[in-house]
Amino acid sequence: MMGYIVYFHLMRSDEFVRSPYNQRQDSLAERIVRGKILDRSGKVLAQTKTRENGKEYREYPYGDMFAHVVGYTARGKTGIEAVENSALLTSNAFFLEKIQTEFKDQKNIGDNVVTTLDVKIQEAAYDALGSSKGAVVAIEPSTGKILAMVSKPDFDPNTVSEEWEDLSSNDDGVLVNRATQGQYAPGSTFKLVTALEYMREDKSFSDYSYKCRGEIKAGSNTIHCYGGKVHGGVDLRDSLAYSCNTSFCNIGSGLKVESFRKTTKELLFDSSLPSDIPYKKSSFALRKDAGPAEKMMTAMGQGQTQVSPYHMALITSAIANSGTLMRPYLVDSVTSHSGTIVSKNRPDKYAELLSAKEAVQLKNYMESVTDYGTASVLGKAGYTSAGKTGTAEYSSDKEKDHSWFVGMANVDNPDIVVSVVIESADGTAKAVNVAKKVFDAYY
Question: Would the pTM count as exceeding 0.90?
Answer without folding.
Answer: yes
